[in-house]
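lol ok so funny story. i was supposed to be doing the assay writeup but got distracted and ended up predicting the structure for this chain instead. priorities right. anyway since i did it might as well share w the group, maybe its usefull for someone
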Amino acid sequence: MFKRTKVTDGTATGQGPDAENWDGKEVGFRKKSKVPGVMITQYIEKLPEGKSHPDFTRKPIALTIQEGKFAFFKAIVTGDPKPTVVWSRNNGDVSDPARYQSKYDPNSNEHTFEMPHVKPDQADTYKCFAKNEYGQAMVTVVLNVIEVGFKMTKAPQQQAEVANCNFKKVLKRRSKVVPKAEEPEKKEGEIDPKFWELLMSADKKDYERICAEFGVTDFRWMLKKLNEMKREREEEQAEFVKNLSDLKPIHINADGTASFELEFDLLDPSSSIYLYKDGEMIPYTKELGDKMKHCLRKVGRKYIFSMRDLMPEDAGFYQLDVEDVNMFSTDFKMVDFLVKIQEVKAMEREDAVFECVISAPLSKLMWFGKNMPLEQGDKYDIEVSEDKLIHRLVVKDCMVVDKGIYAACAGIKSCNAWLVVEADKGAPKGKKTARKTTRAGGSGTDLQKVAQEQQQILDKEREERKEKIKAAREAAAEAAAAEEPEKTADSGAGKDKGAAVKVERIDKTSVAATTTVAGDSGSGHSAGKASGGAKQDGSHADAGGGHSAGKASGGARKDGSIADAGGGHSAGKASGGAKQDGSHADAGGGHSAGKASGGAKQDGSPADAGGGHSAGKASGGAKQDGSHADAGGGHSAGKASGGAKQDGSHADAGGGHSAGKASGGAKQDGSHADAGGGHSAGKASGGAKQDGSHADAGGGHSAGKASGGAKQDGSHADAGGHSAGKASGGAKQDGSHADAGGGHSAGKASGGAKQDGSHADAGGGHSAEEASGGSRQDGSLADAGGGHSAGKASGGAKQDGSLADAGGGHSAEEASGGARQDEPLADAGGEPGITSGLSDIHAIRGQPAELTVKMNTDCDGAWFKDGEPLKSGGGISITKDANIHKLTIHSCRDTDSGLLRFVSGDLSTEGRITVGDVPEFDEDDLHKFSKPVIVRVGQNAAFKMPFQPQESLTVSWFKDGTELKDGGGVKIVREPNHSRLLLRDCLRSDSGEIKIQLKNPFGAVEATSQLIVLDRPGPPEGPVETVETTSSVIEIKWNPPKDDGGSAVTNYIIERQERGHSLWTKLGDVSAEKTSFRDRNVTHGKKYSYRIYAENPQGLSDSLETADSIMAGIMILSGPPGKPKVVSTSKTCINLTWTPPEDDKGVPIIGYQVEKRKKDTNQWLALNAINEPIEDVNYAVKDVTEGAEYEFRVSAINESGAGDASPPSAMACAKNPNMRPCFKDPEDFLVVRAGNSVRVKISYEAEPPPHITWLKDDEPIAPWINVINTEGMSQLVIPSSKRSDSAIYTIKAKNSVGEAFFDVEVRVTDEPKCPGPVELEQTVYGKVAVSWVPSPDQELDDRLYYVVSQHDSNTRMWKTVADRLFANTYTAHNILPGIEYHFRVYAKNDMGLSDPSQSPTWGANSNRVPISSNGVSSMEISFERPPSILVPLKVHTPPKGYQLYMTCAVRGCPTPNVSWYLNNTCINSDKNYYITNSCGVCSMYILRVRENDGGEYRVVAVNSLGKAECSTKLTVRD
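and the output, tada:
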């Protein structure tokens, strides 16, 4: 619990000047302090010379502390006369000495205000006043106290405060996100409050990620609610801060700390700032050097929260509040490494790859190489997979200096591995080898598989959250439907009660929708309902009901397109969804359950649908190119509806035989949509238009109704019915009105008003139907008409003012037509319309251009350009072919650019034509660019292409058809008149076609060149074939290399190595046409290896080497050596010897191969390989098992291989021979400091293993002394030694052969205690006897001795005059009169020196022997003197920002105390000045001179005999 500072306007007892009975009547002048936050009042206008008002050089610092701790404030004040300092608090008294103590330290000039055992009621704003006769300085500081635990005494107090209506003290401040321990059990599907807090602090680009994390898929609902919450939060924040910006979420820094930051200005500097983690308040400090874990510091306007010593439990939800208002929220997550980086061994000039997999998606890891952070660049590539789970670091072109430890850090988790770079031994000396194209390293596991498994886990968790939210929302919708049956009955007519349930759907691709739109709905026969939601891109969701329970609702969209809905006869429903590209999905219904709805498209085109006789229904959708789809009514209850368009074209609808209905939509430019009624119960409704034109509606025979909308210019729309119709007109903003007509019996129609004057019409049906039209923010409207029985149609409006009308049919069929923005329409009648309109085009200068408009009927039209009429002539032809109108420009010019418009009656369409040129290259530049660029491997390749500056010009570079992007080894520079491509450190694989493309809206042009990268050739193709081998000739053959390095191979170089030798010898070279070589210099029986190099002008290739050695001639093997003999055995080794073979067959023996066979086995195992022969005739076999028996045999090896094996040796057992114990290199003396452990280690040899015994001074050792015996060693351990453990320890080793002893002296000691008092005595002139009391450790330590040091006033240095004294006296020689001597005596042992014992001063005491003066009188000399200035200060005029030294010399005895003053203010403790005093030379150093460093500097030297001072002026130049 946190006790927050209370801020009130009142002044409590003991606060301010009243605390010291200050009258507070002084009225002075406000002065500015050098310390921010200090208020200074000066009582007089001009201060006397040398006097100053009070000021703070160090002000108290705000403190947040836990209850019961020691709290204190410190302040340093200046002023002349010395100010009086008083402390007070805003809400309380500070006179209780048990709780508040004021102290002053004259040495440090610090005023301290202490509060021992601070309590929560002491949390307050405190003030510090400093006053003298010339003014007053005041500063405030805040104390916050963190309350610990629950206090029983507070419960009655809180109840009393509640009774007195003092709720502010009772309520405890809490975060909106409650702690996990207090978090209530969440309902199924409930959204975590953290979701909204994170969204309000996040960038828009992070919305989708946060929604996916919390399982929210309804983006439109989320954005709507988020905007509302943001408005409320911004209003709350405006009460405390302004200019809130630069919110940076929490992240891990390179130094291992985590931090987040934001910028804002506090309206009230005393406002409190709080930090929360998972809803719980956390304490923090504002001091950088403090030991607390959390720190919040301010840098200018920026507030930076940092956290050090990160642990896994630091992960959580962090918030920063000012007073009670949240300013920023961020989520700190910890990720772990599923696959860590592994050690990489790479060859020099090869790329090394480190890769890892983490447990959660992260856009970036922190990579370190040899403790330095690494960034993307020429040396390093940092790669992240698409799912952000796999991260890679590529160290390019590894060199030996790159080896070291590389690390990947993800928060507090990290992993590291070594990069080992091996030098290329085959590289020629003094030359840099070519860069290799291979990569070394990798994790060795299937990272993609691990990442996919982790992604499946994350997706599963996300889908579970989505399902919970979806289930909760559906349950809430059903509950809402059950609770409000009566409200639904009021909005729709039918025989049973209707229920309204709102179901919203959102397109996932439309995240940023912000316009709130509505969907219109009407009632069906009984109680059914279906609702269609709106989408941002214009597509819609349709819903339709049936006869008995049908209801359909259409929603509006941001771009003006609508969502339509129509009812069927019984209860069937078919819905057609819209697609983003304008295509739609149609649905057809029938007599008993049929319904079809046409979906609107992004460009505004509608989808129409009409009813059929029995179960058929036709739906017509409009297309983007202007063609349309018509829908006609059937025999019984057909209906067709036409949608309106932005440019005034309309959609007509024709009725059916019996109960047909036609509805006409309104247009923006004043044209109208007419509708005709059917025979029996037809209805026609006309909608109003933005420019005042109207939509007419005619009634049917029996129960028809017509409603007319009012126009802006005063004209109106009439509506008439047959019997008892009622018409209601809604008012518009411009004063015109909307009329509505009644139906046959009790029909009702209501029209809603809109902001721009357009209206919503509604028509009544036969019985109790009701249709309502909703208004929109942008002025568009939605009309609805009633049917005969229970039908209802709802039309949605568009943003541009056009509308969509819907009407009812005889039985319940309905068809709805939506509006389209680009003017194609859907026809259901014979009115003129534009089926294919104009669009914006780009024409090439000098080329022809043609514009075409297609009408649905043969009618005349006119063309206009920028408002001026156009006629054929002057390079323009206007033609008409039936219903197709064409405008042809024979040769486009710049003057032809403009806005073209086609008008036919009330219909029009327009499009803009822009004339320009396709980019082009200069022929000379094109010729230069087409020449190939030839470079060597490792060099840079540059391409440059000039071009004419143009607008909207896109420049792209391609290599072998793949576009190049700037980054890594590719650098692309784009200038207004040229572009450059730079490929760094080219490899052989970079060779290929380089292409530049210039593209603008009129077309594109390309230029190509070739990049040829020259390199050494690849190695010759193997394998090496042996063509012939005899005793004198070996012939080999190979194939040419696959890659010649860009230039032809000139020759091949052949080298040979004799088996058993390390030297390769060059045999010669052959031309490139010849790929074979005959070696005539061979020796019969010897084996040779060959390697072949290919050479071109760039250098030598890597070598192709023979797989096996090739022997010259046939194989000749040696005879068997003599039978091996066993020389000696041990448990780890058996030594053998043998004799050479008697018959070597005339071939020299290279060495021998030894084999072993274990007893009772049949397998012989070779102890050395044939290519690693044993050159001597003896061998030590170490690969043996103790106690096992072996036999051995030997084979002789020559150039042809291993010969026949010798007879096996006798069986030999691997065991040690019996031997008497003996100790190996033991130490006989050991010194240990008391308190440390004693470890005596003795190594021995014995067979069989001996019995070990330890003795202490020939007695058995104590039980607390441990003895650890291992094979070949015994160890005595004393865990914590004491002086009494000093002794001679004896180890005794005994076996069946004999025994051995060894003594070790162990001395346990410590640093000796200092000797006793030192006495001086002079018995002979020039000599002084120094004696001292022995050290208490002298009797305990026989190795203790003494050291004597001497000091005299002449040299003023200590020097050792005696060492290794075992006595307690020493005689000092050459003691001269008039010189003071001091002696120090140290005790010393094996642990070191003791503290010294100091002697009295010799030469100034009564112990000296008087020296006769032979009658000459002497007088006593005194060296004491008052201070004096030997060298005064000099005048300095340094420039601002430069360094400065000031020095002076001071003398005095005793040594005077020196103080520095600036403008009569002591600066000895000011950290801005570095002050020293060395042997009277006083120096003051300023690192960088500031303006406020100017003034009078004064040095004051004071001792017991007097005072001296000097001063100077310092002027700071700009």
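The mean pLDDT is 73. The helical segments are 154-163, 167-170, 193-201, 207-214, 219-237, 447-483, 485-491, 923-930.
back to the writeup now i swear
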